[in-house]
């Protein structure tokens, strides 16, 4: 059969978006165009790929089998794109950096000034995200992470550890008193991770805490920082963030600061790209 890669990309987009309309938005096309391409692919394969259920679609057994092969094709296309980008010798274009919110907001902006001096034609996109972006799928070019990457074809450099410390606002300390390791159970903790996850770190470290001590949580580091500034409780934040907020005070300083390993990561193919290499090397030097 004569295979049309554009139809395969459309099929993959429909699977990822869960609907024809979602695929149309993702690909910048109209829904009738998406429908025609799926129909053409089904005709070429002489098979039904989707069952229509209202506005959504569901893969048929044959469609599910085909998905494995199309995903492999998509990964291959990603690697071709990475290889082509790696051969670029021009220090211009976009570099996408992903890091946690507070690193993105409080650390990276100062470094962008230096990058702009060395490469004024670069475009820098900061993806502030506490999750892990997929570098192979080009969701970012460079990542600052707190876990060593396990995916193949990634290049990682260990940076200095990030220190995490307890802090609170003067408003909280005036109302609740200064905490000590012995009185910590009488205090409130605000967190940017789930309460059970935080307890799984703190309780084994000998801290007398329970769910009752963690009434306020958020999925955002910045929100947790603002909750601490509002006097809702004690937060555990990077020391650089505490230093940048004059209305937060380090507390429980007798407890050794938590250390998080920090890794600078890029795809191995991108090391040969001058723009990626310039930004990677500068970040490695400054953050080490």
The largest sheet, given as strand count, sense and whether it forms a barrel, is: 9 strands, mixed
Order of helices and strands: HHHEEHEHHEEEHEHEHEHEEH
What is the 3D form? globular
Uncertain stretches of 5 or more adjacent residues: none
Please characterize this protein's 3D structure.
The structure is a single chain. The chain is α/β, with parallel strands linked by helices. The chain is 42% helix and 22% strand. The chain contains eleven helices and eleven strands. The strands form two sheets. Strands 3, 4, 5, 6, 7, 8, 9, 10 and 11 form a nine-stranded mixed β-sheet that branches. β1 (50-53) and β2 (56-59) form a beta hairpin. The longest helix is centred in the N-terminal third of the chain and has 26 residues, at 61-86. It is globular, with a radius of gyration of 24 Å.
